[in-house]
Structure formats: C-alpha cells, structure tokens
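Lab notebook, design round three. We kept the backbone fixed and only want residue identities now. Task for the bench partner: fill in a sequence for the structure below.
Input structure tokens:
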C-alpha cells in the first residue's frame, strides 16, 4: 500500500453547456437525486447522487460539445444491478431520443460475460451502463478491442 493509503472514486465532475438540460437527463432519465444546487455568477452547478451520497457534480461552464480527441474524460461508466435494469435504462434513453454508440446490449469484448449499453449525454459525453455478468450471449462490436473504448 502506498503512503497515501487506498483511494476510491468519490464523485465525477462534468462540465455541461446547459444545466437544466443535463439535470433532466441525469436526474429524470438516469434517476440520480439532486442533492444540492447553486450558482456562481452566470454559472450554475448541481450535485447528484443516490441515498445522500454524491456521485456526479454538474458544472455549467462549458461551450461546444464533448471532444473525445482531447485529454480528459474518456467515458463515464455506471454498473447496474442486472441486465434487466440495463434494458430498462435502454428503453428510457431510447424514448428520450438518446444517441447510442452501438445498437442494443453488447458484450465488452468477444466471449465476455460483462456488457451493457453505450450512449451519449446531451453534451456528447460518452456513458456506459453495464453489468459484470449476464451478457454472455450479446454480440461484441469488435473482436479485439473493448467495447468501452467506443471504437
């Protein structure tokens, strides 16, 4: 163990272009609770989580769309309780007109038991909802690269 101990992820902060639009997506569609909100000048922010625990901080301070070619966040992944929950999320996202990277549930790689859905938030940030097992029969979009690579 290192001198700083064991670290775990506390929360992820995302820059967004429209806080209300992002709140509708992350809270209303994905089911995160709004734990707090505020504003600093013309910029607003919201803290989202579950059961009082912070998971995502949204900061309205960006312009343009997510750029996968720039350093920083590659994608944000959430783990679901079951494949049925992944499919329920897919239905809710489809009804909202969300853009998906692949059609339906896909395996993380050929022959993998893990897999899920891969999609984009309103600003184009790449997101994943997956399960560690249960996707054995799902197709893999690429035989060699991990699906979460969004290749």
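Proposed sequence:
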């Amino acid at each position: 163990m290192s001198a700083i101990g064991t670290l775990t992820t506390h929360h992820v902060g995302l820059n967004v272009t429209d806080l209300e639009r992002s709140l509708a997506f992350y809270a209303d569609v994905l089911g995160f609770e709004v734990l707090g909100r505020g504003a600093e000048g013309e910029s607003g922010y919201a803290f989202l989580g579950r059961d009082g625990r912070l998971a995502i901080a949204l900061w309205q301070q960006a312009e343009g769309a997510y750029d996968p070619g720039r350093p920083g966040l590659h994608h944000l992944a959430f783990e679901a309780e079951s494949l049925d929950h992944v499919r329920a999320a897919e239905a809710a996202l489809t009804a909202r007109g969300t853009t998906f990277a692949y059609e339906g549930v896909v395996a993380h790689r050929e022959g993998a038991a893990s897999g899920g859905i891969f999609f984009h938030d309103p600003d184009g940030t790449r997101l994943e909802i997956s399960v560690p097992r249960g996707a054995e029969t799902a197709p893999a979009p690429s035989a060699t690269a991990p699906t979460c690579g969004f290749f």
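Keep this in mind before ordering anything: Residues 42 and 143 are 47 Å apart (CA to CA).
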